[in-house]
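[Discussion] Sanity-checking designs against the backbone

I'm trying to build intuition for which residues belong where. Below is a structure token string of 205 positions. I'd appreciate it if someone posts a full sequence so I can compare it with mine line by line.
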């Protein structure tokens, strides 16, 4: 994810994770390390949006928070980034691009659960869409396809697949071929996300 974001023009990446949310002070340090009077911040996690807004109050830089709630939304925002023009208008365009993205996370169940309409047993592969378990499957690829069947509409044109550290590149490419076959009108892109815990993170726009 770091290499991908940097390739799109991100200057500073603050490391984090499911249990390692950065502090406002860490965000301020990254903001002030950027050689610019206006800085756009992408939280890329729903738990960090509030912290990013706190950081705005702790620096003299003009900070524009684009409230991305997933790393995939951050990628979409960076695709819409342009270094020219009014910074506030650029941030607004980036926010609009991020809002068009819908994300699914493919992981495994750490415990049995009856919390959703679907019975989940420890070790099951699950598809989480919008914070809810929407599918249970025998393998990550089947869970990914089930998630996409919930998400993709006739208006969508791009499906992005970010595969995690426990997924072989060959498996991700094979999944992409199945996705292309089922949704031929969409462009399908594959990236090595390298994330732990989540076999795949999928985005649709």
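Best answer:
Here's mine. Compare freely.
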């Amino acid at each position: 994810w770091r290499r991908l974001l940097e390739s799109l023009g991100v200057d500073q990446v603050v490391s984090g994770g499911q249990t390692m949310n950065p502090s406002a002070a860490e965000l301020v340090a990254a903001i002030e390390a950027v050689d610019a009077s206006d800085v756009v911040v992408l939280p890329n996690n729903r738990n960090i949006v509030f912290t990013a807004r706190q950081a705005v109050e702790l620096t003299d830089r003009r900070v524009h928070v684009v409230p991305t709630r997933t790393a995939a939304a951050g990628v979409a925002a960076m695709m819409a980034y342009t270094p020219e023009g009014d910074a506030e208008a650029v941030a607004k365009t980036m926010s609009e691009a991020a809002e068009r993205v819908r994300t699914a996370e493919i992981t495994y169940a750490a415990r049995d659960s009856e919390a959703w309409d679907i019975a989940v047993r420890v070790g099951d592969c699950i598809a989480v869409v919008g914070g809810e378990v929407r599918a249970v499957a025998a393998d990550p690829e089947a869970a990914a396809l089930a998630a996409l069947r919930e998400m993709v509409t006739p208006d969508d044109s791009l499906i992005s697949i970010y595969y995690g550290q426990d997924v072989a590149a060959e498996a991700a490419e094979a999944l992409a071929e199945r996705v292309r076959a089922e949704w031929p009108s969409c462009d399908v892109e594959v990236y090595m996300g390298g994330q732990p815990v989540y076999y795949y993170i999928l985005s649709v726009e």
